[in-house]
Amino acid sequence: GAGVSQSPSNKVTEKGKDVELRCDPISGHTALYWYRQRLGQGLEFLIYFQGNSAPDKSGLPSDRFSAERTGESVSTLTIQRTQQEDSAVYLCASSVAWDTEAFFGQGTRLTVV
Amino acid sequence: KQEVTQIPAALSVPEGENLVLNCSFTDSAIYNLQWFRQDPGKGLTSLLLIQSSQREQTSGRLNASLDKSSGRSTLYIAASQPGDSATYLCAVRGGNNRLAFGKGNQVVVIP
């Protein structure tokens, strides 16, 4: 596609449920990032994928969070047993390589009620 | 840990004035710096990428300068327009490959 695509754009879920967020990077982009933006806060790094290397998971806030990426394609971010503090916009970005311009998707707004 | 600060946090300017947005970072060992724009409820739009070996980068009315040794970057927007109203984010990429973001400069251009 022309840009980074994220789905769903909005998700409302009940506390305790699991959610899965999807990111389709720009074709040919080897690097993929997930960030979280809480209301009124800055962007918080979650996880980074680079090609077939082991991902940098150091930003994941708890073991309820996990992410996968198959090769250089789609990535999914899964949050298990959601809590109200997980409410945020989850943003995905991709770049051709680790040191090139990053392009962001429109984000998924997650609301945990 | 890289800390990125953007000053001022918010500013309002009359249409036609030039905008000057500042970004500072604590660790000068960066590979590049990227400026983004974020409109309310939207994702981030890339504006400029400036490599660590560059002093400045220009795109239309936008000009970004980088002084890596002092840990500073400035984004200039010439002849501001109401459509420039948005939050501007600065992000630096260091040795850990991730982008470290500031909290942004919220800009309002008054017609």
Walk me through the structure.
- The complex is a heterodimer of chains A (113) and B (111).
- Chain A is an all-beta fold.
- Chain A is built from no helices and 10 strands.
- Chain A has strands at 5-7, 10-13, 19-24, 31-37, 43-50, 65-69, 75-79, 88-95, 103-104, 108-112.
- In chain A, the strands form 2 sheets. In chain A, strands 2, 4, 5, 8, 9 and 10 form a 6-stranded mixed β-sheet that branches. A 4-stranded antiparallel β-sheet of chain A has the order 1-3-7-6, with no helix packed on it.
- The radius of gyration of chain A is 13 Å and the shape is globular.
- Chain B is mainly β.
- In chain B, the strands form 2 sheets. In chain B, strands 2, 4, 5, 9, 10 and 11 form a 6-stranded mixed β-sheet that branches.
- In chain B, β9 (86-94) and β10 (99-101) form a beta hairpin.
- Chain B is globular, with a radius of gyration of 13 Å.
- The A-B interface holds A 4, 6, 31, 33, 35, 41-43, 45, 48, 50, 56, 59, 91, 93, 98-107, 109 and B 31-32, 34, 36, 41-46, 49, 89, 91, 93, 96-104.
Q: What class, by secondary structure content of chain B?
A: mainly beta
Considering DSSP H and I runs of 4 or more, what fraction of the residues of chain A is helical? under 10%
Q: What does the average pLDDT of chain B come to?
A: 95
Beta percentage of chain B is over 45%
Give the DSSP E fraction of chain A (strand runs of 2 or more residues): over 45%
Q: What key phrases describe this protein's structure?
A:
heterodimer, A: 113 residues, mainly beta, four-stranded antiparallel beta sheet, globular, B: 111 residues, five-stranded antiparallel beta sheet, 11 strands, 60% strand
